[in-house]
Amino acid sequence: MIFDSYEAFRAANFTPRVCVLGSGPAGTTIARKLGAAGIPVVVLEAGGREFSDTSQDFYRGTTVGDLYFDLDITRLRFMGGSSNHWAGWCRVLDKQDFEPKAWVPDTGWPIRRSDIEPYLREVREILELPDFRPDAPVSDDIRWVQLIKSGAVRFAEKYADELDKSRNIAVVLNTCATELAGDGRRVTGARLRSQGQDAGFFSADYFIVCTGGLENSRLLLWSNQRSNGGVVPNATALGRYWMEHPTFQGGNAILADYGAFEVDAVNEAFFSPMPAAMERLRIMNFGIRLIETPYPGVKDLIANLACTAPNMAEWLSGKLNQNLRCAAQLYVAWEQAPLASNQVELSKTVVDHAGVPRIELHWKKSDLERRTLLEGLRLFGTTLAQKNLGRVRIADWISNGGDYPTDEETAGHHHMGGTRMGTDVVTSVVDANCKVHGMDNLYVGGSSVFCTSGQCNPTTTITALACRLGEHLGKVVAA
Fold first, then answer.
1. Is there a contact between 292 and 249 (Cβ–Cβ < 8 Å)?
2. Do the bridges between strand 268-273 and strand 286-294 make them parallel or antiparallel, or are there none, so unpaired?
3. Alpha-carbon distances of 414 from 105, 158, 162, 164, 403, rounded to whole Å
């Protein structure tokens, strides 16, 4: 059942046991799992069926620190959430991403990759993916990795008919929880706003916050402030350890053999470091996106490389009349260390139309991120040279320690952390089952529970965690 307002929902006399806040990939997946288990669930979606400037305005905020996107354009507030502008790039976090790194504080998850692997078949059906292929070593330090570019499932389009026909799931549009109320042990209800008006107080047995990697923190911070700590009783880490994937063009390469690497349909290949190389260099995970540029552009690039990187000249001259067929651009996206200082805060001066403080995002890349970028490119370049596969020229601003460019991708629109998973209530907000520490009936879904970011796009892992949470909560509610 899909309703356009809370008033229409109330008139239907549907009584849910579980309330899911948000209809993006996490919220929709969890609701479908619960509905399939015969558990009545309501999904409250703040936006409508289509994009609107009025709804989107609630996402405005400010960023303090490094250059970042405007907060109202880096996510979407209508049915299906940010799946509506998802590019469809899919990969699951690596096994080593779940494990602690001795050289990076506050890393390591309370679960392992093996805990989400049982759900990957279901994830492939949801996201319409082929089987994932294993990584292929290029050297002892670098591996070819698969990043699937799917058809970019729009959750509202794919599941609208199923949700509308469901007798166990109600989706209520244009309706959001402006705050949760709690007594330090349970959420006692939510104050709602629907169609631009106060809609009163709503109660359910269980609440799952799936409003996104920024809004999850915002809602819980505001709710906790209003309830004097009654919603997140252990709030030291709430809003903290926020992460993104810095993304920039890292340089260029000349390849000796056009067929040396497997590329996808648009002539792109992806590479990441071996775990041992990360540990040896004491860096984070990274992904290099190699975009091949066939003739005739290669000639100009060869000339430029020979002028700016003379040490390549001998290798280039020896290859010009052999198999030298391809130039490439190298883009790098890399893991950000979890730092408590990178955090979502509530503005002390600016509120939205519902009176909720807007977000003030504090985000800054650290020296470790800069070193990961430089050492990662060096590692890739060394592999190509040792295997006689090509040569890499690292961008001058990276080699010379210059400022980050202001006219490039900047980051991945990947919002992670803020309600991170863990066992220590000082450094985490939810436990291994995504339940808020100290609360009996409050859970969090989505990438805000990520402990570390790895190097890959988060949607596949988000969906796997949502399948796992939906199955777990189904057993809890049915008990």
1. no
2. antiparallel
3. 21, 22, 28, 30, 22
Q: Is 221 strand, coil or helix?
A: helix
Q: What is the Cα–Cα distance from 305 to 328, expressed in whole angstroms?
A: 12
Q: How far apart are CA 62 and CA 361, in angstroms?
A: 6
pTM: 0.92
Contacts of 316 (CB under 8 A, 6+ apart): 254, 302, 305, 306, 324, 391
For 159, the enclosing helix (H) or strand (E) is helix 155-165
- Name the amino acid, one letter, at 123: V
Give how far Cα 306 sits from Cα of 4, 324, 327, 429, Å. 62, 14, 13, 53
Amino acid 404 reads Y
The region of weakest confidence among 4-8, 113-117, 178-182 is: 4-8
Number of H helices, E strands in the chain: 13, 22
68 with 361: CB under 8 angstroms?
Answer: yes
Contacts of 383 (CB under 8 A, 6+ apart): 138, 139, 141, 142, 389
**pLDDT digits 0-9 by tens, 305-335:** 543 444 554 445 455 444 444 678 999 999 9
In the chain, the amino acid numbered 443 is Y
Q: Which two tokens stand for residue 159?
A: 């599941």
AA identity, residue 351: V
